[in-house]
Design brief:
15% strand; five-stranded mixed beta sheet; globular; 34% helix; 8 strands
Amino acid sequence: MTDDRDVLRDVWFGRIPTCFTLSQDEITEREAEPYYLLLPRVSYLMLVTDKAKKHFQKVMRQEDVGEMWFEYEGVPLKWHYPIGLLFDLHASSTALPWNIIVHFKNFPESELLHCLTKDAVEAHFMSCIKEADALKHKSQVINEMQKKDHKQLWMGLQNDKFDQFWAINRKLMEYPTEEGGFRYIPFRIYQPLNERPFIQKLFRPISSEGHPHNLGDLLKEMFPAAVPPEDMEKQYQVVIHGIEPMLETPVQWLSEHLSYPDNFLHISIIPLPRD
């Protein structure tokens, strides 16, 4: 039987083999070789692509280098989404490595937020953690932490230090035993290429009758098409961290073990290909 810490480690150390290629629109002084990286699923593109950026800038004139952004098959990749979520949403059926195009010009203003420094990533990350704790504990846990604890969460993620991060984050995953779970589950449900960024509503881990809610219960309420009746063909794959959890899995367990470091359960609903 896998213990809980093994699950947390497996989630943290998930990697996606990725090939970065410079856009053909860019002007270079010599040919730009592709750059390969193992991307951490739980991190953000802007935290782990410094080496790729330096690699491509070597073949470009400084005046041609603008703000870096990424694209996969024509879709600009949102830097404020965790890497694993981006892959599950846009590339889960692709062969590896994941082929990402790097751009330094023509920033898609209408589709992406600017991210000129890592401070923007930190601000977004901490904002998510605070929102998640407001849902789980009425903000009591995060507000009782000291500034250095907040910094340790961020540095643990930025430097890929599992123990440093979880020494603090475990406090955000605790709840009184008699309550049986968090106040509400912090979750977001995404679909590829949907105009609406995501579905997020209040959802309790325990029913009014005192029964634990499972993933199927959450989906039936938020996205019923993902849970077809038994006589109907399945239309969607429900993916969290690259796997398809059983619908019977309690949402409280999922929230404690399969949330991203921002403390949200990011759920991708992927349409299955039609024959």
